[in-house]
Amino acid sequence: MDLELRGKSIVITAGSKGLGKATALEFAQEGAHVLLSSRNEEELKKVKAEIQEVTGNEHIQYVVCDMMKPDHIKKLMEHAVSWNGTIDVLINNAGGPPTGNFEKFGDEDWQRAFELNLLSFIRTIREALPHMKKQNRGRIVNFASSSIKQTLDNLILSNTFRAGIVGLSKSLSQELAEHNILINTVGPGRIATDRVAELDEIRAGKLGTTVDEVRAQAERSIPIGRYGEPGEFAKTVVFLASGANTYLTGQSIVIDGGLVKAL
């Protein structure tokens, strides 16, 4: 199957590790021109060199970008256009908000989570749309969480704003279809990333047990019987963002090994 990604202009936010990094690697293997962003320049340098070494694709660049700063987002998207002439694919990703229940958080916590996990996506999309509309084609994939189908304990900030991503994506799928711009949301389940390891560590501390036992217990609840690998998640993302996807839009897809039981 030809994914029609060679030479395409891809922007990936929070691309220096975890799911963002894995997704960048998959796009690079398809010959795309990949622009990474994160707040950590040292990590970006390492990831750029690693991807180039593994794939042989020299068309990898990065921009240091704090997703809570509108001017950073604008410069990121301007760089993509100056480099490749347009933006074909936007992959929206951001770090997860703090863990905790409702009574733990004040207004500042809610505002920060909103700006990082929802408003940043709105801002990147706003910057990308003129270029996608001009060429009458574009793909947007928003990273969320399995909480878009089934809420997660002790993650009220994530549960709230990941749901907002779904509403945004669904609404935009209606508005943008006439321009051949397809937008979808993907929700990772228990994928083996630093974020999931952090959550396992927090849970182990609360239960007074080991991280290994927490993971083993979680794996017993997954029908496939293990945590997913970032690369497995990334393959679905790349398909959704590719020319091979011509009719799938406005959907929320959970990649979780069958863990979530909600319809």
From TrEMBL:
SUPFAM superfamilies (UniProt xref): NAD(P)-binding Rossmann-fold domains
Record's keyword terms, sorted: Oxidoreductase
GO BP term (any one): bile acid metabolic process
CDD domains in UniProt: BKR_like_SDR_like
GO molecular function annotation: 3-oxoacyl-[acyl-carrier-protein] reductase (NADPH) activity
Superkingdom to which the source organism belongs: Bacteria
Enzyme Commission designation: 1.1.1.100
Keyword Oxidoreductase (UniProt): yes
Transmembrane spans: none
PANTHER family the UniProt entry points to: 3-OXOACYL-(ACYL-CARRIER-PROTEIN) REDUCTASE, NADPH-DEPENDENT REDUCTASE BACG
The family this protein is said to belong to: Belongs to the short-chain dehydrogenases/reductases (SDR) family.
Protein name in the entry: 3-oxoacyl-[acyl-carrier protein] reductase
Organism the protein comes from: Salirhabdus euzebyi
